[in-house]
Amino acid sequence: QVQLVESGGGSVQAGGSLRLSCAASGRIFSINDMGWYRQAPGKQRELVAVISSGGVTTYSDSVKGRFSISRDKAKNTVYLQMNSLKPEDTAVYYCKTDGLNYGGSNFAAWGPGTQVTVSS
C-alpha cells in the first residue's frame, strides 16, 4: 500500500500565499514523477504542476510564474508554493505520485485532497 497525505490548505485573500505539502509512505522502491492536480466545483480535474525524479518541472499555463513545485527525495515529499493567489485558484488540490514497487511494477497513488479557498 502506498499512501499520500496532503497538508497546508486553507483560506486566504487574493494576493496571498500558501504552501502545500504531500508525503508518500509505504513500500516504495522508487518514485518517478510527483505532481499536483486541482478540481474546482463543477469542473474537470486539471494538472497544476509536475516534477520528475531528475527535478524537471512542468506547469499549467494558468499558474506559471506564481506557483513553484519542489521535492525532497529523501523524505518522499513534494511541495507546492503558491504565491499571488487568485480566486480562480480555489479548488481541492490533490497530490499524485508515480513510481515503482519492489519487483519493478508501476504504481500511481493519489492523496485525499486538501481545500484551497481564495477570496476576492
List the keywords:
seven-stranded mixed β-sheet, 120 residues, mainly beta, four-stranded antiparallel β-sheet, 11 strands, elongated
Can you put this structure into words, describing what you see?
This protein has 120 residues and is mainly β. The protein is elongated and about 50 Å long. The mean pLDDT is 96. Helix content is 0%, strand content 59%.
Q: Averaged pLDDT, please?
A: 96
Question: Rg to the nearest angstrom?
Answer: 14 Å
Please describe the biggest sheet, giving its number of strands, its sense, and whether it closes into a barrel: 7 strands, mixed
Structural class: mainly beta
Work out the number of β strands.
11
Strand content: over 45%
Could you name the ranges where pLDDT drops below 50 across 5 or more consecutive residues?
Answer: none
Q: Determine the fraction of residues in helical runs and give it as a percent range.
A: under 10%
Count every helix, treating DSSP H or I runs of 4 or more residues as helices: 0
Question: Order of SSEs, N→C?
Answer: EEEEEEEEEEE
Distance between the termini: 40 Å
Characterize the overall form: elongated
